[in-house]
Design goal:
Beta Polymerase, domain 2, Hydrophobic Seed Protein, 23 helices, 12 strands
Amino acid sequence: MTKPLNIIHKALGHDSGLVVVGGAVRDLLLGRPSPDLDLATDLLPKEIMARAKAAGLKVIPTGLQHGTVTVMVNRTPFEVTTFRGDEVYLDGRRPDTLRLGVDLEEDLARRDFTINAMALPVHAMDDEAWTEFLVDPFGGRQDLADGILRAVGDPLDRFKEDGLRCLRACRFVSQLGFDIEPGTLEAIPQRLEVAERVSVERVFTELTKLLCGQEPGKGLSALATTGLLGLWLPELLPMIGCRQNHHHLYPVWEHTLEVVRRAPAEPGLRWAALLHDCGKPARRTEDARGEYHFYGHEGLSVTMTQDILARLRASNALAQDVTALVRHHGTHPAPEWGDPACRRFLKRLREDGLTVAQWGAFRLADQTGKGFGTERCGPDHQAIMARMEALERTLPPLDIKALALDGRALMALAGRKGGPWLGELQAFLLERVLDDPALNEPETLKGLAEAKLRAYP
């Protein structure tokens, strides 16, 4: 990546003060790839555009109001922003006024956390001693080494400027496994009214990143501690302190954190892990022996999941996957199940757009998240998965499209046009072949269909 940066640096000139800023510097120090590469310079936007064009580079004025110009290098866009200082935030999200032409330290002073308030001159990136050129006025490198997330300057000011920063703090806790510095942590509950103004789309994006982090339990605990959980996911608050029965070592909330941690770091699986038991508190009953039960919690969890994801404006595809996983999380194929029952379960998974692998990965996280380790559920789960995967490999007919006779053939056989009778007949034939896939042959289905048709009035 340094080659394109060198091209931009050469185009803008050695007097441009071009630096890499923010998360890219943090990730470079952590030795991991960065999804973002932000560049900053003391040149004003018009000068950036003029110099880049003179060097033969395409430029796009993508955000002149924010001092940002996009420079294209071999069809790859790079955002270059003039050093700036923010003055007034009225909406708790974006500054209403900007001051361009400030120095680099003032530009870094407006950033959220010290670990994101570092800069590295582009000309130093290829130097073996590049860390000696690091611009770090707020101690971000030390905080990075200590695993501390600290606001730049006064945290109350930082969170007042941008309500999303409260949520970003919890997200970084999850992604990096860091602890929030006490003063920074204490400031978040005092700025909930600012956080509340953040668009739901941005909230959902940050929550998804948090859930997919390496330590999502720490991030979720931070949400609960600071009041942010109640702000955006109030339905989950009753899970905290909700005790369970002897099948679980943990209360509902702690169990949920374990399932999230154990589920593969994919948005659908992690959101399902977070929401799969959200209906439990409302369905908890206690019998005469003092044992808790949660009858019907799966159905309520499905309804609540649909409502939560709709409010957060999750995509239809994600909502469908999450809802399906929540719907089926209580299904546990037993050794006494026959092959027809297993095939019908495969059919239900197919109808909900799930694969056996997705369901299995979530089931394992849920079972091991009860607190008893893999010793209790591991062998049983492996046996279930081996059986379901073996059945799936036989490519059993699981929907009417897989029947050896299609709708046209059945209408020709009956000498009738389509109608409700056709769907009923196809459902009947599918049930028969689910019992015995060997029946899925044209002649055999023809005989079954003719017998069934004779029963129609």
